[in-house]
Amino acid sequence: MTFGEFDVIETYFTHRFAQRDDVQVSVGDDGAVVAIDPTEDLVVVTDTMVAGVHFDANTPARAIGHKILAVNLSDLAAMGAEPRWFSLALTLPEIDEEWLTGFSTGLKEMSEYYDCSLIGGDTTRGPLTITITAHGVVPKGKALLRSGAKPGDWIYVSHALGDAGLALAVQQKRLAIPDQHYRKVCERLFFPTPRVALGQSLRGIASSAIDISDGLLSDLGHILKASRVGARLSLDELPLSLPMTESLSQEQALQLALTSGDDYELCFTVPESQRGLFDTLVAHAATKPICIGRITSDLNRVVLELDGEPWQLPAGEQGYQHFAFSSERGHDGQS
Amino acid sequence: MTFGEFDVIETYFTHRFAQRDDVQVSVGDDGAVVAIDPTEDLVVVTDTMVAGVHFDANTPARAIGHKILAVNLSDLAAMGAEPRWFSLALTLPEIDEEWLTGFSTGLKEMSEYYDCSLIGGDTTRGPLTITITAHGVVPKGKALLRSGAKPGDWIYVSHALGDAGLALAVQQKRLAIPDQHYRKVCERLFFPTPRVALGQSLRGIASSAIDISDGLLSDLGHILKASRVGARLSLDELPLSLPMTESLSQEQALQLALTSGDDYELCFTVPESQRGLFDTLVAHAATKPICIGRITSDLNRVVLELDGEPWQLPAGEQGYQHFAFSSERGHDGQS
Q1: Given pLDDT bands bounded at 50, 70 and 90, which one contains residue A6?
Q2: What would the 3-class secondary structure string for A40-62 be?
Q3: What is the DSSP letter of A27?
Q4: Contact by Cβ (8 Å): B76, B134
Q5: Where does Mg(2+) 3 bind (chains A, B) (predicted)?
Q6: Touching check for B87 and chain A: CB below 8 Å?
Q7: Average pLDDT over residues A60-69
Q8: In a domain, B320, yes or no
Q9: Higher pLDDT, B84 or A94
Q10: What is the mean pLDDT of residues A275-279?
Q11: Would residue A202 count as lying in a domain?
C-alpha cells in the first residue's frame, strides 16, 4: 500500500482547517474557487515540478518553463477559467545563465500566448524546484467541477491520449519506436497544450471536467468519486496518435492511453440535453473532442469494452498514484 | 560579487515579459496588486522556505508551519492587505507523520487566527521545500507600496529588531547568551508575528511600507531605491529587546538590529501631514511603532547617528543579500 497524496492532504489539511464563507471550492478539485465580486469568481491553481521527479537532466530548460505554466493553465482550463496572472517560486541550486535563459523563454512564450501575466514570486537557493500558482476568473457559479456528472452523461476527451507516456517509456528504454514517432511524442511530453479555449467554452455545457495529468482512468476516477457515479468506456473510440498505433500493439497502446499521465488533455462529461449545443460548438473547432463512453450509476466502477466485449487492463495497471513512494516518480497536480 | 536574487528576476523575468493592463504592481514590491473589482484590488504574495537554507533539522515542525504562513502574511501586512486565502505547495522527501502533524498544527493556528483559508495546493515528492502563495484584498488603489516615501517623511519600525538574528547567531554558536534570553529570542525566530492589523491601519496614512525580512538597512534600502530618496536614522531610538541590551555590547546590538533578518516587523514612512492621525491611531495600540528617523533627498544614502554623532557599521555588514552564493543561507521574500 502506498501513502498517496490524497491521504496526506485529507489527513493533515482538508478536514482539520476551518474555512471562510467565501471559499466555494477548496482542496479536492483541479483548483479552488473563491468569491471576489458580485459577478465573477477567482480560480486559483498550484502545481510544482521537482528536478529528478517530474523532469530529468535531459529535459530542455525551455520545455520546463513551458510545461510548468502549461500544467497550471491546464488546471484553469479544467475549471473553465480564463487565465489572468501567475506567481513563480523558483528554487535554484546555482545561477546557470543558459538554463535561466531557456527556462524564462519557455515561460514567456506561454505567458504571452495565453495573456497570463507573471506578477511576482520568490527566488531561493536549494534543490531545483518550481512552483507556479496561477489565477483565472469565471462568471459567478460557472466553474467546472469534478462533482456534476450524472448517469447517462456522455464522456469526452479533448484529444489523443498516451503520447506523453510513450515518450517517457522510450526515454526510460522501456519501449523502442522509430525516430520520427519519438520526435512527435516528445513534443507532447515536453510542450503540452493546455485546452484553455475549450475549457472556457464548456461553461454551462459540461456537467463535470478534469485535466488528465495522471492517466485517464485515474483522473476519470476523480470525477466518478466526486460525482458518486461510474462509467462505461468504449475503447474502440479512444483517440490514439499515429506513433501509438504504428509503433505499439493494440494492448500496449490502450494501456498507455488509459494509464499514462502528462497528456494534459481534458476529460469531461456532457448531459444528453446539452449535446446538440456542444456538437454545434465544436463543429468548426480545429481539435474535436471525442466521445469515449457514458456515465453509469454504478458507483466508482469503470467498465471497459472493446469490440463490444469486456476488456481488462493487465493486473496492477490502474493509473498513476500521486506521491507514490513505491513508484519511480512523483507527480504534479492539485489533488 | 554575488549574483543576487534581484539580478536574476530583473535579468530573466521582469523586463522581458509583457503584462496585462490589469496588473497594477508586479515584481518588485512585497506583493503584486491586480484589479479584480470596481472597489477592491487583489494582493498576491509568495514565499518559499527550503530545508537546510531557511531552517535546519532543529527547527520544530510546528514552527515551520507557523513561519511559512507568517512570512506571507507579513508581506500582505506590508501591502496593507486583509488576508483571505492561501495555497500550499509542499515537497516532501518522505511521509513523516510526526512532522506532518506538527507542521499542519502550526499552519492551522495561523490560518484560523488570521482568518486566512487554505484553499488548495500540491503535494510532491522531493527535497523538503514549502511555498505558500497568499491572497489578500485592499480597497482600490490603497495598497501600501515601497515607492511613496518623500523627503521629510518620518521613518517607523513596528517593534524591536534583531532578536531573530540573535537567536540564529546563538544557534550557530557565533554568540552566547543566558538561557532565559535565548528562549525569548528563539520564540521570535521560530514564531514571528505578522503585523497584519497594523498594516491595514496604515492605509491612507503611511507613504511607503515594507516588512523587514532581510535586515532593516537592506529592506529600508528597497524603500529608498523605489522612492528615490535617502534616510537619516537615529540609532538611539532603535528599539532593542532586553535580551539584546543585556547580552550584547552596544555595537553588537546595533549591528544585529540593523542587518539581521527574520524579524518580520514593518518599516514604514509617515508624512508630517499624517502624523497627528497616526499618533491617534497608535495611542491605544498594544505594540507601538517607534520613530527611528527621517527620509532625506539624498538618493539611496543612509546616514546613521548615535548620540548626535555619525556612526558606521563595521565594514562589510550592509544587510542580507538574497540568494547570495557566497553566504551560508539563502532567504525568502518577494523581491
Answers
A1: low
A2: EEEEEEEEEEEECCCECCCCCHH
A3: B
A4: yes
A5: 30, 75, 211
A6: yes
A7: 97
A8: no
A9: B84
A10: 94
A11: yes
Rounded Cα distance between A9 and B121, Å, is 9
Looking at the partner chain, which of B84, B126, B131 has a beta carbon nearest the beta carbon of A20?
B84
Residue A201 and residue A277 in one domain: yes
Give the confidence band of B243 by pLDDT, cuts at 50, 70, 90: very high
Q: What is the pLDDT of residues A220-268, one digit of tens each?
A: 999 999 999 999 999 999 999 999 999 999 999 999 999 998 999 999 9
Cα Rg of chain A (Å, integer):
19
**Contact check, Cβ <8 Å, A129/B129:** yes
Q: Kindly state whether residues B161 and B301 are assigned to the same domain.
A: yes
Domain closes at, from A110, A139, A168: A139
Domain contains B145:
no
ipTM of the complex: 0.86
Cross-strand bridge partners of residue B287: none
Chain B, 46 to 85: residues with Cβ < 8 Å from chain A are 46-54, 84-85
Residues of A within 8 A of B88 (CB-CB) are: 13, 46
Contacts of A10 in chain B (CB under 8 A): none
- Contact state of A37 with B32 under an 8 Å Cβ cutoff: no
For residue range A151-210, what is the model confidence (pLDDT) as tens digits? Answer: 999 999 999 999 999 999 999 999 999 999 999 999 999 999 999 999 999 999 999 999
> Above 50 in pLDDT, residue A327?
no
Interatomic CA distance for residues B92 and B12, integer angstroms: 28
Which chain A positions have a beta carbon within 8 Å of B120's beta carbon?
26-27, 29, 31-32, 44-46, 334
Residues A129 and A247 in one domain: no
Let me know if residue A214 belongs to a domain.
Answer: yes
CB A86 within 8 A of CB A119: yes
Measured between CA atoms, how close is B55 to chain A, in angstroms? 12
Mutate to test the interface with B, among A33, A119, A128 (most CBs of B within 10 A): A119
Domain of residue B109 covers: 5-139
Same domain? For A169 and A284 the reply is: yes
Residue contact A323–B123, C-beta within 8 A:
yes
